[in-house]
Design a protein that fits this description.
By secondary structure, the chain is mainly alpha-helical. The chain has helices spanning 23-42, 68-89, 95-116, 123-126, 130-144, 154-177, 196-215, 219-237, 246-251, 253-271, 284-304, 306-309, 318-341, 346-349, 353-357, 359-380, 384-388, 396-419; strands spanning 180-181, 187-188.
Amino acid sequence: MTNPSGPTYVVSTAPATVKERLTGLDAFRGFDILTMVFVNYIAGMKAIPFILRHASAEMDTFTLTDVVFPGFLFIVGVSIPLALAKRQAEGRTGLALVGHVLVRTLALLFLGVLLVNEDRFSAAAAGIGKDLWYFLATLAVFAIWAVVPKGAATAKRRLHLGLKIAAAVLLLALVVVFRGQGEDGRVTWLQTSWWGILGMIGWTYLAGCLLYLASRGNRVVLAGAVGLMTALYIGSRHGALDFLGPVNGVLNVGSLFGSHSAIVAAGMLAGTLFLPGKKDIAAPRTRVRFLAVLGTALLLAGYVLRPLHGFSKIGGTESYCLATAGICCLVFLLFFVVLDIYKKGKKAAAFILPAGRNPLLAYLLPGVIGNAAALLGGVLHINLWRVIWPFAETGGLAGILNAAVMTGVVLILTTLLGRAGLMLKL
């Protein structure tokens, strides 16, 4: 990777004094998560354009839908330098920072495991219906990770603490009674068949944070890490990590800490541009040039390596991860130029900002809506889900519009709940 920002490579870990709010990053995050909600709603529908479906494992290509998850990882990478700098400014260093990263990682892994076990849930074995279990579990998650407003009165803080304790007890009880059933009919507890979106974000977030802290944000090291992580994946495809044995079965080291973590490392490279107090990279022209070069280099690297294993989201191939990271970098550049440099279109982008600033809530709401509809329908003795989702089976243009409406509902609820004070933060 080239470094258009000049000869200074090491990012200071001194406490930051001014935090720059990136509207473009919030808007990009909101756009990405709402796109994810939309494509999840149309998943499995009939007569849907190929560009809106996931490419199958045997296809050497990727679609718009296949770029959504790399978008999450790239945004995580951009956010890491900013988040760590903020905590350093608050006086946290060393073990305190590592402890924060570990706690956040465990929370993401926990939520990821809960969600990936939904399809295995056995109501007969657990003694509770799946919709009720997940509805209560998600409400508990809302309470546990709800942000307590700064400057809140003592009574309000005590109320929040009481709710968090009660929610933690409820969630623990739900986890204890959980039972799943596999295809072989065997009843089991929570399993990690795969880590889910949140779990994969958790592992790559951990890898990215530890790398960033160890390298002190050195851009040369971060750029080298992109190459090393790419090589790790390639090596894993050719048996270099076979010595890890069952560890690979649990973690898939080559994919999680190789190709997917390379996307996070690329995002961290972009994120270092926006650290407070860095005058050598503060000029808009410098930032634009850096992001343009980085995005183009990643995209070209993906195409150059394509003959090795092709483009495959399911396989998490190195060419797919690098190419989509490049696309995400260039899309982020577009949001940054329009919203942060020229400050145009902020009113137009305002509708997606609530999802970008409260992403966990927006991510979990579709599940809550589905669970609530099933529970209320059971009470009313009607299939309420068919009422709000009439074109799920027919698909086509009607299904796409139905998905767009449901995505709008998620956005409206995210906005209203956010204004009411429900902000989730791990």
